[in-house]
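fyi for ur records
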Amino acid sequence: MVNPMDLTGKSILFIRDSSSLNSAIIDQLHILGGEVTILDSLQISTTESIVKEIVRKDGPFDGLVYGIVHSDFRPIRLINPEITDMLMHDNYGIFIEVIRVLIKSKGLRNGASVVAMSSISSIRAMKANVQATLEGT
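which gave:
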Protein backbone atom coordinates (compact mmCIF):
# COMPACT_ATOMS: atom_id res chain seq x y z
CA MET A 1 0.00 0.00 0.00
CA VAL A 2 1.28 3.48 -0.87
CA ASN A 3 1.64 5.96 1.99
CA PRO A 4 -0.15 9.15 0.89
CA MET A 5 2.18 11.14 3.14
CA ASP A 6 5.37 9.78 1.56
CA LEU A 7 7.36 12.76 0.33
CA THR A 8 10.40 10.80 -0.85
CA GLY A 9 11.96 12.63 -3.77
CA LYS A 10 9.66 15.65 -3.37
CA SER A 11 11.18 19.10 -3.08
CA ILE A 12 9.46 21.64 -0.87
CA LEU A 13 10.11 25.34 -0.53
CA PHE A 14 9.40 26.41 3.04
CA ILE A 15 9.16 30.13 3.78
CA ARG A 16 9.21 30.67 7.51
CA ASP A 17 9.52 32.95 10.45
CA SER A 18 11.17 31.84 13.68
CA SER A 19 8.26 29.99 15.31
CA SER A 20 8.78 26.59 16.88
CA LEU A 21 5.76 25.30 14.94
CA ASN A 22 7.65 25.89 11.70
CA SER A 23 10.64 23.94 13.03
CA ALA A 24 8.37 21.01 13.95
CA ILE A 25 6.77 21.04 10.49
CA ILE A 26 10.16 21.11 8.77
CA ASP A 27 11.30 18.17 10.93
CA GLN A 28 8.17 16.23 9.94
CA LEU A 29 8.69 16.99 6.23
CA HIS A 30 12.21 15.55 6.55
CA ILE A 31 10.88 12.45 8.37
CA LEU A 32 8.41 11.91 5.50
CA GLY A 33 11.31 12.02 3.02
CA GLY A 34 10.92 15.55 1.69
CA GLU A 35 13.83 17.63 0.52
CA VAL A 36 13.21 21.02 2.13
CA THR A 37 14.65 24.32 0.98
CA ILE A 38 14.22 26.89 3.75
CA LEU A 39 13.82 30.58 3.11
CA ASP A 40 13.64 32.89 6.10
CA SER A 41 11.36 35.92 6.35
CA LEU A 42 11.22 38.08 3.22
CA GLN A 43 10.54 41.67 2.30
CA ILE A 44 8.43 42.40 -0.77
CA SER A 45 11.18 44.55 -2.28
CA THR A 46 13.65 41.62 -2.39
CA THR A 47 11.28 38.69 -2.86
CA GLU A 48 11.53 38.46 -6.65
CA SER A 49 15.31 38.26 -6.84
CA ILE A 50 15.62 35.88 -3.88
CA VAL A 51 12.89 33.50 -5.07
CA LYS A 52 14.23 33.49 -8.65
CA GLU A 53 17.69 32.59 -7.33
CA ILE A 54 16.26 29.77 -5.14
CA VAL A 55 14.32 28.41 -8.14
CA ARG A 56 17.44 28.58 -10.31
CA LYS A 57 19.50 26.79 -7.66
CA ASP A 58 17.03 24.29 -6.13
CA GLY A 59 13.80 24.33 -8.14
CA PRO A 60 11.34 23.65 -9.48
CA PHE A 61 9.45 22.59 -6.37
CA ASP A 62 6.74 20.00 -5.74
CA GLY A 63 5.31 22.09 -2.94
CA LEU A 64 5.36 25.39 -1.09
CA VAL A 65 4.69 25.98 2.59
CA TYR A 66 4.18 29.61 3.55
CA GLY A 67 4.72 29.65 7.30
CA ILE A 68 4.88 33.34 8.10
CA VAL A 69 2.04 34.04 10.51
CA HIS A 70 1.92 37.45 12.12
CA SER A 71 -0.85 37.92 14.68
CA ASP A 72 -1.56 41.00 16.71
CA PHE A 73 -3.96 41.10 19.64
CA ARG A 74 -4.05 44.81 20.39
CA PRO A 75 -7.26 46.42 21.46
CA ILE A 76 -8.93 47.98 18.41
CA ARG A 77 -8.33 51.49 19.71
CA LEU A 78 -4.56 50.88 19.51
CA ILE A 79 -4.56 49.71 15.90
CA ASN A 80 -3.46 52.22 13.30
CA PRO A 81 -2.79 52.12 9.54
CA GLU A 82 0.89 51.25 10.03
CA ILE A 83 0.00 48.15 12.05
CA THR A 84 -2.62 47.13 9.51
CA ASP A 85 -0.10 47.58 6.68
CA MET A 86 2.46 45.46 8.53
CA LEU A 87 -0.03 42.63 9.09
CA MET A 88 -1.18 42.72 5.45
CA HIS A 89 2.44 42.81 4.24
CA ASP A 90 3.49 39.75 6.28
CA ASN A 91 0.35 37.61 6.03
CA TYR A 92 -0.80 38.39 2.50
CA GLY A 93 1.47 40.62 0.43
CA ILE A 94 4.61 38.51 0.58
CA PHE A 95 2.63 35.30 0.00
CA ILE A 96 1.06 36.70 -3.19
CA GLU A 97 4.45 37.96 -4.38
CA VAL A 98 6.06 34.55 -3.78
CA ILE A 99 3.30 32.81 -5.76
CA ARG A 100 3.61 35.37 -8.58
CA VAL A 101 7.37 34.90 -8.84
CA LEU A 102 7.16 31.10 -8.61
CA ILE A 103 4.64 31.02 -11.47
CA LYS A 104 6.62 33.52 -13.55
CA SER A 105 9.89 31.61 -13.07
CA LYS A 106 8.28 28.17 -13.51
CA GLY A 107 9.27 27.36 -9.94
CA LEU A 108 6.38 24.99 -9.20
CA ARG A 109 5.96 21.63 -10.92
CA ASN A 110 2.59 20.63 -12.38
CA GLY A 111 0.41 19.37 -9.55
CA ALA A 112 2.43 21.15 -6.86
CA SER A 113 0.77 21.69 -3.49
CA VAL A 114 0.66 25.07 -1.79
CA VAL A 115 0.01 25.40 1.93
CA ALA A 116 -0.39 28.83 3.50
CA MET A 117 -0.60 28.72 7.27
CA SER A 118 -2.55 31.29 9.21
CA SER A 119 -3.50 32.03 12.76
CA ILE A 120 -6.34 30.07 14.32
CA SER A 121 -7.36 33.27 16.07
CA SER A 122 -9.84 34.06 13.32
CA ILE A 123 -11.88 30.99 14.24
CA ARG A 124 -10.96 30.33 17.84
CA ALA A 125 -9.76 33.47 19.57
CA MET A 126 -8.54 33.23 23.11
CA LYS A 127 -11.12 34.54 25.55
CA ALA A 128 -8.72 36.91 27.31
CA ASN A 129 -7.76 38.54 24.02
CA VAL A 130 -11.36 38.99 22.95
CA GLN A 131 -12.24 40.52 26.31
CA ALA A 132 -9.23 42.84 26.20
CA THR A 133 -10.14 43.97 22.70
CA LEU A 134 -13.76 44.63 23.59
CA GLU A 135 -12.89 46.37 26.85
CA GLY A 136 -10.01 48.34 25.36
CA THR A 137 -7.57 47.26 28.06
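The longest helix spans residues 81-104. thats all i got for now
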